[in-house]
Each structure stands twice: as structure tokens, then as C-alpha cells.
Design goal:
Elements (H helix, E strand, L loop, with lengths): L6 H6 L6 H8 L6 E3 L5 E3 L2 H5 L7 E7 L9 H14 L4 E5 L4 H5 L7 E2 L2 E4 L1 H5 L5 H21 L6 E6 L3 E3 L9 E3 L10 E3 L1 E3 L4 H8 L3 H9 L2 E5 L4 E3 L6 H8 L6 E5 L4 E4 L14 H10 L2 E5 L4 H16 L5 E6 L1 H7 L12 H21 L4 E6 L6 H13 L3 E5 L1 H4 L5 H11 L16 H12 L5 E3 L3 H10 L7 E4 L20 E9 L4 E6 L18 E2 L5 E2 L3
Parallel strand pairs: 3-16, 3-17, 4-15, 4-16, 8-11, 17-18, 18-19, 20-22, 21-23
Antiparallel strand pairs: 1-2, 2-14, 5-6, 6-14, 7-12, 9-10, 12-13, 14-15, 22-23, 24-25
Helix pairs in contact: 4-17, 7-8, 7-10, 9-10, 13-14, 14-15
Length: 560
């Protein structure tokens, strides 16, 4: 039984197909493959160019309610839906993000799905995989090194060391590196200055890699990165430092999508991994486009709740890449909804219709955002738990029906693709419906403040936005520099519609405080940091790393 084994034990007990067989299932000729062992490979970008005239399949986005410690199972549902579509005779290809080592060794553990709805080899995917994150970190840190070297070698550009906005990066939760002083030790050791690290997934290089369509596009985007400002208040770019070519050279393989498989041999592209709470939270455009060309259905996910990942997928990624979703799946659990209704984690196993009623507005607000703001057809997938009662499931179904949305019970964790058949059938039905996909805001003709207000009021249901600390001056500066037409990437706690993690459910009567704005000119959006959100997480008191081990045969244990 699935509940008798951990995710990693289930994954390790499954016999994987050779990656060449998975490529054939997907329709990828072996000539396009760059193998990393027997079970994973990169796919050359020339495949996408050669498939340019082939019609796209249907794009299905999987998102979720606001996360809770009870868990929702978005990646598990995405994998199970892809397998479920294959069960009903549809050619599906999955497109996911790569996990970051930060959460793997921190709180969350592995991020390759769960139970019998997983992508494999899960240990590789959750750890170094094909080295993409290392390449992104290296490119990020090359630029950082070039900045400080330029200052050390005479600073011809007149870079103000106190106004450098580019940070170093490491793919680990390391709070000690959030704010540092470097360049110490004397004149030959560099120019002392305040500095800091972001986690690699928050690096603009990560966003650029995920949004680039080619090597030339990658280089152009890298060249536009603003690393800081001169003493004369002029922006300094990576192009000014002649950095983009070398950075792109480090990323020439990382930009190629990674092909793996599910436990049921469904092809899956796993590529790129920005966090949705501090970045745009979607896998790469190249992976999504390749999956669309190869499958009748591309099933992809966006990070955290729909107010973060889905909003950015729709308002940033789809806008930039010209993508149009055909349907959206919103994942929820009865347990998590009861938690939004105020039930402690230890009491979630008991039926509590009153708490469920109190927590349902969180789900319903996400549903309304998808169907009424973005105008897309949606289905609610209830990730089933043994403790769910018939009365609780009926209550969720009734409230969703009031909004014109169906509910499908997802049992993919325990049953794999077979447990996703009902969800797959509803997704196919929705994909046949025409839709009037709209963005939450337009980029042209609206000020940065207008766009901040649109996201806060239309998606979060806030009363408005307050600019605090450095944000007012930054907003004026960015608009004067010509960046007013860029979309907005909100950096906000994933645990609430508000910028206060303690305000669960569907809060009202709050305002969003934006304390810092940063222009990511290469990625093509403005990052708005709200509340106390940080771009370098820390480890918990008992990190997941304490439970991870490897034996003499190289077999890993404890990884979720």
C-alpha cells in the first residue's frame, strides 16, 4: 500500500524506462537528446525550432489554494493528471519546475510529486539533477565578481559601491548570508562594501533563463540587467561590464529543457525553478513550448497559491510568451480548508463542517480570480485523504457549484494515473470550451502604481497599496527611466492573500505595504517586495537535512 512506504521508497521500487524510450513516447528523435545517464537527458533547442510549424496542444495550468502546513499536493496532482490523461487515451506531456536545494534540505523536503504520482529519478531531480542551478549561480556570481573587479581596477564607470543592487547567489537556505560586509583585508583584497546573497531561485538570471526563447534572446536579456547606479545616478548594466557573453557561455546547456518520466512513463520536462513568492514561479518557456508541440495536452504548474504562481504565470509568462491556457485546475484538500477555518493541524482528522465553511472562502476567492478576473474555465481538484467525510466533500462540491465550477476527487497519490481519470475527463471537457482569457491588468497606459493596485485589489481583495521606505522614490525613478510599462512581479508571503502570513482564509480590510521596488530589466518585470518577505530563506529548527542519508551503494534515504 502507498501509505506503507515513503515517496522515495515508492520511487526506488519502480523500474524506470531508458530515457530513449521516453523520448520516443514523446516524439523526440534521439538526435536531439543529450543524455545524462540512462534516465534523464537534455533536449536541444533545435527541436523547438524544427517543430515551429506544428500546432500547439492544449495548455492546462495546475494551481492551488493558499498553502498551509496540512499540504495541498499541487505537483502530485500535476503528475497524476498527466498520467490520467494518458489513461483515457490522450497524449499528455508534463512541464514542471526543478526543485531548489533550499527547501529540499529545509522544511518542504523533496518536490517531485508524491505517492504513485511522481517524476523520477526523484533523488536526482531533487538534488543536483543536470546542474542547471549550479550554472545559474555561477553566471550570477560571475557578474558579481566583475562588478567588484571593475571597482577595484579603477572604476571607470563610476559605480557607487553603496548603490549596487546585484547580489551574489547560492542555492541554499542560509540566513547568515542575507547581509554581509566583504572586500576586507586591505587594499589588494577589494573595496569593502555591504553586500548580500539571494537564494539562486530568486536571482534575475533564473528568471531570464526561464523566459528566454534562444541563446541570442538569453544574451540580450542578460545584457539589460541593471546591477546598480553610478555616483551620477545613472543605471549600470551587465552590458557596460561586457558580461553577457561569458554569462551566456555558462548557461548554454542550462537553457536546454530536461526530459525525465513519471512512474507510469509519461514524458515530463523539468526545467527552471523560480519561487513564486519571491520570483515569477513558473518553469521555462522553452520547456512549456516544447511540451505543447509534442503533446495534445501540456500539463504545467505554477508555484504556491493561485494569487502568486498562477497570477504571475498568466500576467507575466503568458503575456511574454504569447501563451493561452485552455483550462485551470485548482488543487485543495479538505484538511487545508479546515486549517484556513482555524482548526489546529493535530485536529484535522475529525469532521468539522463549521470550520470547513469558515475556510472555504479561501478556495472560492481563488476560483473567482481564475474564472472572473482571468476568465478561464476551471475545475477544483480535491486531493483525497482517508479522513475526508462524505459530508465535507459534499459541502465543498456545493459551494463550488454555486460558482459554476465542478469538483473532481483526485486519488493520484494512492492510485497514480487511475486515480486521476475523473479529473482528466473534466479537464478535457473544459479544454473544448472557448474562453476569453484576460490579464488582471494591462501593461501599456497604466502606471506602476496602477498595476500594483490592480493586483492588490482584484486578486488579493486588499483595500489598496501603501508605498513605504524606499518604494516611493524607486517608483518615481523607474518611471522616469522608462520602465513604467513593465508587468509587476509581487514578492509576498505565500501563506496569505495579504502580506501578513497570519491572516489566513480570505481576509478583508487590509492594505498591501510595498517597501522596496527592483527593476529586473533583463527578465522584463518590476519586483515589488511586500511585508517582511525575504529573498534568502533560513533553515528551520529541525531541517529536513537531518533525515537525509546515503549508504555505501549510493542509495539515498529520507528524501521525503
Amino acid at each position: 500500500m502507498a501509505d506503507m512506504k515513503s515517496d522515495i521508497e515508492i520511487a526506488q521500487a519502480t523500474e524506470m524506462a531508458d530515457i530513449g524510450e521516453i523520448a520516443r513516447i514523446a516524439g523526440v528523435d534521439d538526435a536531439y537528446l543529450e543524455r545524462y545517464g540512462n534516465h534523464k537527458a537534455k533536449v536541444d533547442l533545435s527541436l523547438l525550432r524544427d517543430l515551429a510549424d506544428k500546432p500547439d496542444g492544449k495548455l492546462v495550468l495546475v494551481t492551488a489554494i493558499t498553502p498551509t502546513p496540512a499540504g495541498e499536493g499541487k505537483t502530485t496532482t500535476t503528475v497524476g493528471l498527466g498520467d490520467g490523461l494518458r489513461k483515457i487515451g490522450k497524449k499528455s506531456v508534463i512541464a514542471l519546475r526543478e526543485p531548489s536545494l533550499g527547501p529540499v534540505f529545509g522544511i518542504k523536503g523533496g518536490a517531485a510529486g508524491g505517492g504513485f504520482a511522481q517524476v523520477v529519478p526523484m533523488e536526482d531531480i531533487n538534488l543536483h539533477f543536470t546542474g542547471d542551478f549550479h550554472a545559474i549561480g555561477a553566471a550570477n556570481n560571475l557578474l558579481a565578481a566583475l562588478i567588484d573587479n571593475h571597482i577595484q581596477q579603477g572604476n571607470v564607470l563610476g559605480i557607487d559601491p553603496k548603490r549596487i543592487t546585484w547580489k551574489r547567489a547560492v542555492d541554499m537556505n542560509d540566513r547568515q548570508l542575507r547581509k554581509i560586509v566583504d572586500g576586507l583585508g586591505g587594499e589588494k583584497q577589494g573595496v569593502p562594501r555591504e553586500d548580500g546573497f539571494d537564494i539562486t531561485v530568486a536571482s534575475e538570471v533564473m528568471a531570464i533563463l526561464c523566459l528566454s526563447s534562444s541563446i541570442s534572446d538569453l544574451k540580450e536579456r542578460l545584457s539589460r540587467i541593471i546591477i546598480g547606479y553610478t555616483y551620477a545616478n545613472e543605471p549600470v548594466t551587465a552590458a557596460d561590464l561586457k558580461a553577457q557573453g561569458a554569462m551566456a557561455a555558462l548557461l548554454k546547456d542550462a537553457i536546454k529543457p530536461n526530459l525525465v518520466q513519471t512512474l507510469e512513463k509519461t514524458p515530463a520536462f523539468i526545467h527552471g525553478g523560480p519561487f513564486a513568492n519571491i520570483a515569477h514561479g513558473c518553469n521555462s518557456v522553452t520547456a512549456t513550448r516544447t511540451a505543447l508541440k509534442l503533446g495534445e495536452y501540456c500539463v504545467t504548474e505554477a508555484g504556491f497559491g493561485a494569487d502568486l504562481g498562477a497570477e504571475k504565470f498568466l500576467d507575466i509568462k503568458c503575456r511574454m510568451a504569447g501563451l493561452k491556457p485552455s483550462a485551470v485546475v485548482i488543487v485543495a484538500t479538505v484538511r487545508a480548508l479546515k486549517m484556513h477555518g482555524g482548526v489546529p493541524k493535530g485536529e484535522l482528522g475529525s469532521e468539522n463542517l463549521e470550520a470547513l465553511e469558515q475556510g472555504l472562502p479561501n478556495l472560492l476567492q481563488h476560483v473567482e480570480n481564475i474564472t472572473k478576473v482571468f476568465k478561464l474555465p476551471a475545475v477544483v481538484a480535491i486531493n483525497a485523504f482517508p479522513t475526508d467525510t462524505a459530508a465535507e466533500l459534499k459541502l465543498v462540491e456545493d459551494r463550488c457549484h454555486d460558482l459554476g465550477v465542478n469538483v473532481a476527487l483526485s486519488e493520484v497519490w494512492a492510485k497514480g494515473g487511475e486515480g486521476g481519470v475523473a479529473l482528466a475527463e473534466e479537464v478535457v471537457r473544459l479544454c473544448e470550451q472557448p474562453n476569453d482569457f484576460s490579464y488582471a491588468y494591462e501593461t501599456q497606459g497604466l502606471s506602476i502604481m496602477d498595476k500594483l493596485e490592480a493586483i492588490a485589489t482584484r486578486i488579493y481583495r486588499a483595500d489598496g497599496v501603501d508605498l513605504i521606505e524606499k518604494a516611493p522614490k524607486q517608483l518615481a525613478q523607474f518611471e522616469a527611466m522608462g520602465f513604467g510599462d513593465l508587468p509587476i512581479c509581487m514578492a509576498k508571503t505565500q501563506y496569505s492573500f495579504s502580506d501578513d502570513a497570519k491572516k489566513i482564509g480570505a481576509p478583508r480590510g487590509f492594505r498591501i505595504a510595498v517597501r522596496n521596488l527592483k527593476v529586473n530589466a533583463g527578465a522584463g518585470f518590476i519586483v515589488a517586495l511586500t511585508g517582511d518577505i525575504m529573498t534568502m530563506p533560513g533553515l528551520p529548527k529541525s531541517p529536513a537535512s537531518e533525515r537525509i542519508d546515503v549508504d555505501d551503494e549510493g542509495r539515498i534515504s529520507g528524501l521525503f
